[in-house]
Design brief:
This protein is of the alpha+beta class. It is built from 6 helices and 7 strands; from the N terminus they run H-E-H-H-H-E-E-E-E-H-H-E-E. The longest helix is centred in the middle third of the chain and has 21 residues.
Protein backbone atom coordinates (compact mmCIF):
# COMPACT_ATOMS: atom_id res chain seq x y z
CA UNK A 1 0.00 0.00 0.00
CA UNK A 2 1.39 3.36 -0.95
CA UNK A 3 1.90 6.20 1.54
CA UNK A 4 -0.87 8.25 -0.09
CA UNK A 5 -3.39 5.52 0.73
CA UNK A 6 -2.03 5.22 4.28
CA UNK A 7 -2.62 8.94 4.83
CA UNK A 8 -6.14 8.75 3.36
CA UNK A 9 -7.00 5.75 5.58
CA UNK A 10 -5.73 7.30 8.80
CA UNK A 11 -8.43 7.27 11.49
CA UNK A 12 -11.06 5.84 9.14
CA UNK A 13 -13.10 2.67 9.26
CA UNK A 14 -11.79 0.54 6.39
CA UNK A 15 -12.95 -2.56 4.55
CA UNK A 16 -10.01 -4.62 5.76
CA UNK A 17 -11.09 -4.01 9.37
CA UNK A 18 -14.88 -4.07 8.94
CA UNK A 19 -15.05 -7.56 10.47
CA UNK A 20 -13.40 -6.22 13.63
CA UNK A 21 -15.69 -3.18 13.70
CA UNK A 22 -18.80 -5.36 13.47
CA UNK A 23 -17.62 -8.24 15.66
CA UNK A 24 -20.20 -9.48 18.16
CA UNK A 25 -20.22 -11.74 21.18
CA UNK A 26 -23.10 -13.00 23.32
CA UNK A 27 -22.72 -10.31 25.98
CA UNK A 28 -20.79 -7.10 25.95
CA UNK A 29 -18.49 -5.98 23.16
CA UNK A 30 -15.98 -8.07 21.25
CA UNK A 31 -12.36 -7.33 22.12
CA UNK A 32 -11.43 -6.77 18.47
CA UNK A 33 -14.15 -4.12 18.20
CA UNK A 34 -12.98 -2.30 21.34
CA UNK A 35 -9.35 -2.42 20.19
CA UNK A 36 -10.16 -1.16 16.70
CA UNK A 37 -12.28 1.71 18.04
CA UNK A 38 -9.39 2.77 20.33
CA UNK A 39 -6.99 2.55 17.38
CA UNK A 40 -9.21 4.83 15.28
CA UNK A 41 -9.53 7.38 18.08
CA UNK A 42 -5.76 7.38 18.62
CA UNK A 43 -5.12 7.84 14.89
CA UNK A 44 -7.51 10.78 14.74
CA UNK A 45 -5.89 12.42 17.75
CA UNK A 46 -2.23 11.78 16.90
CA UNK A 47 -2.32 11.58 13.07
CA UNK A 48 -0.03 8.53 13.45
CA UNK A 49 -0.98 5.01 12.27
CA UNK A 50 -1.73 2.84 15.29
CA UNK A 51 -2.22 -0.60 13.77
CA UNK A 52 0.30 -3.39 13.76
CA UNK A 53 3.32 -2.59 11.58
CA UNK A 54 3.18 -5.14 8.78
CA UNK A 55 5.94 -3.68 6.62
CA UNK A 56 8.34 -6.53 7.44
CA UNK A 57 5.73 -9.28 7.73
CA UNK A 58 6.54 -12.12 5.28
CA UNK A 59 2.93 -12.94 4.39
CA UNK A 60 2.09 -9.28 3.73
CA UNK A 61 5.23 -8.86 1.63
CA UNK A 62 4.35 -12.03 -0.30
CA UNK A 63 0.88 -10.63 -1.02
CA UNK A 64 2.27 -7.27 -2.10
CA UNK A 65 4.82 -8.93 -4.37
CA UNK A 66 2.42 -11.37 -6.05
CA UNK A 67 -0.73 -9.25 -6.33
CA UNK A 68 0.31 -7.61 -9.64
CA UNK A 69 0.94 -11.06 -11.14
CA UNK A 70 -2.45 -12.30 -9.92
CA UNK A 71 -4.15 -9.25 -11.43
CA UNK A 72 -2.35 -9.75 -14.76
CA UNK A 73 -3.17 -13.47 -14.82
CA UNK A 74 -6.83 -12.68 -14.12
CA UNK A 75 -6.94 -10.11 -16.92
CA UNK A 76 -5.24 -12.51 -19.35
CA UNK A 77 -7.60 -15.35 -18.40
CA UNK A 78 -10.84 -13.35 -18.55
CA UNK A 79 -10.11 -10.54 -21.01
CA UNK A 80 -11.41 -8.08 -18.40
CA UNK A 81 -9.35 -5.05 -17.43
CA UNK A 82 -9.06 -4.31 -13.73
CA UNK A 83 -8.88 -0.60 -12.97
CA UNK A 84 -6.62 0.01 -9.99
CA UNK A 85 -7.81 2.65 -7.55
CA UNK A 86 -6.79 4.60 -4.48
CA UNK A 87 -8.67 4.87 -1.20
CA UNK A 88 -12.36 5.64 -1.76
CA UNK A 89 -14.32 7.47 0.93
CA UNK A 90 -17.77 6.11 1.78
CA UNK A 91 -20.31 8.43 0.09
CA UNK A 92 -22.50 8.85 3.20
CA UNK A 93 -20.52 7.77 6.28
CA UNK A 94 -17.79 10.18 7.40
CA UNK A 95 -14.40 8.70 8.33
CA UNK A 96 -15.06 5.47 6.46
CA UNK A 97 -13.98 4.00 3.16
CA UNK A 98 -12.10 1.29 1.32
CA UNK A 99 -9.26 0.57 -1.05
CA UNK A 100 -10.29 -2.36 -3.26
CA UNK A 101 -7.63 -4.08 -5.33
CA UNK A 102 -9.52 -3.08 -8.42
CA UNK A 103 -12.77 -2.17 -10.12
CA UNK A 104 -14.38 -3.57 -13.25
CA UNK A 105 -17.06 -1.44 -14.86
CA UNK A 106 -19.79 0.13 -12.77
CA UNK A 107 -20.80 -2.91 -10.72
CA UNK A 108 -17.80 -5.01 -9.71
CA UNK A 109 -15.02 -4.85 -7.14
CA UNK A 110 -12.01 -7.13 -7.26
CA UNK A 111 -10.28 -8.26 -4.08
CA UNK A 112 -7.08 -10.22 -4.58
CA UNK A 113 -5.77 -12.54 -1.88
CA UNK A 114 -2.38 -14.18 -2.12
CA UNK A 115 -2.22 -16.49 0.90
CA UNK A 116 0.63 -18.80 1.79
CA UNK A 117 0.32 -22.34 0.50
CA UNK A 118 -1.09 -23.91 3.69
CA UNK A 119 -3.75 -21.22 4.06
CA UNK A 120 -4.57 -21.46 0.38
CA UNK A 121 -5.11 -25.22 0.64
CA UNK A 122 -7.47 -24.70 3.60
CA UNK A 123 -9.49 -22.16 1.59
CA UNK A 124 -9.74 -24.58 -1.33
CA UNK A 125 -10.80 -27.45 0.93
CA UNK A 126 -13.52 -25.31 2.52
CA UNK A 127 -14.64 -24.08 -0.92
CA UNK A 128 -16.09 -20.98 0.73
CA UNK A 129 -14.99 -17.36 0.76
CA UNK A 130 -14.03 -16.70 4.42
CA UNK A 131 -16.56 -14.50 6.23
CA UNK A 132 -14.00 -11.77 6.97
CA UNK A 133 -13.36 -11.42 3.23
CA UNK A 134 -17.09 -11.46 2.49
CA UNK A 135 -17.59 -8.55 4.91
CA UNK A 136 -14.60 -6.74 3.39
CA UNK A 137 -15.99 -7.07 -0.13
CA UNK A 138 -19.52 -6.07 0.91
CA UNK A 139 -18.08 -2.92 2.51
CA UNK A 140 -16.14 -2.20 -0.68
CA UNK A 141 -19.33 -2.60 -2.71
CA UNK A 142 -21.13 -0.18 -0.37
CA UNK A 143 -18.33 2.41 -0.46
CA UNK A 144 -18.13 2.30 -4.26
CA UNK A 145 -21.93 2.41 -4.69
CA UNK A 146 -21.88 -1.02 -6.30
CA UNK A 147 -24.07 -2.78 -3.72
CA UNK A 148 -27.31 -2.79 -5.67
CA UNK A 149 -28.94 -6.05 -4.61
CA UNK A 150 -29.38 -7.60 -1.19
CA UNK A 151 -27.82 -10.88 -2.39
CA UNK A 152 -24.31 -10.35 -3.64
CA UNK A 153 -22.62 -13.37 -5.16
CA UNK A 154 -19.07 -14.26 -4.28
CA UNK A 155 -17.01 -16.41 -6.58
CA UNK A 156 -13.53 -17.75 -6.42
CA UNK A 157 -12.88 -17.23 -10.10
CA UNK A 158 -9.83 -19.40 -10.58
CA UNK A 159 -6.72 -20.54 -8.81
CA UNK A 160 -3.58 -19.71 -10.73
CA UNK A 161 -0.34 -21.56 -10.14
CA UNK A 162 3.16 -20.55 -11.22
CA UNK A 163 4.54 -24.09 -11.44
CA UNK A 164 5.90 -24.27 -7.90
CA UNK A 165 4.07 -24.15 -4.59
CA UNK A 166 3.18 -20.49 -5.07
CA UNK A 167 -0.53 -19.84 -5.35
CA UNK A 168 -2.81 -16.88 -5.57
CA UNK A 169 -6.51 -16.49 -5.96
CA UNK A 170 -8.92 -13.74 -6.81
CA UNK A 171 -12.25 -13.00 -5.25
CA UNK A 172 -14.68 -11.20 -7.46
CA UNK A 173 -17.82 -9.73 -5.95
CA UNK A 174 -20.57 -9.26 -8.48
CA UNK A 175 -23.34 -6.87 -7.48
CA UNK A 176 -25.62 -7.59 -10.43
CA UNK A 177 -26.09 -11.21 -11.41
CA UNK A 178 -25.16 -11.83 -15.00
CA UNK A 179 -23.10 -8.68 -15.36
CA UNK A 180 -20.06 -10.82 -16.01
CA UNK A 181 -19.83 -14.24 -17.54
CA UNK A 182 -16.34 -15.17 -16.46
CA UNK A 183 -16.79 -18.83 -15.57
Amino acid sequence: MNNCNLEKRLGKLTASKIADATAKIKTGEAASRITYRAQLVAERLTKIPQGVDLTNHKAVQWGNDTEPFARSAFEAETGLLVEECDFIDHPDIPNAGCSPDGLIGADTVVEIKCPNTATHIEYLKANVVPSTYRKQILWQLACTLRLKEPKTHFRIIRTFENGCVLFWWILLAIAIIGSLSVL
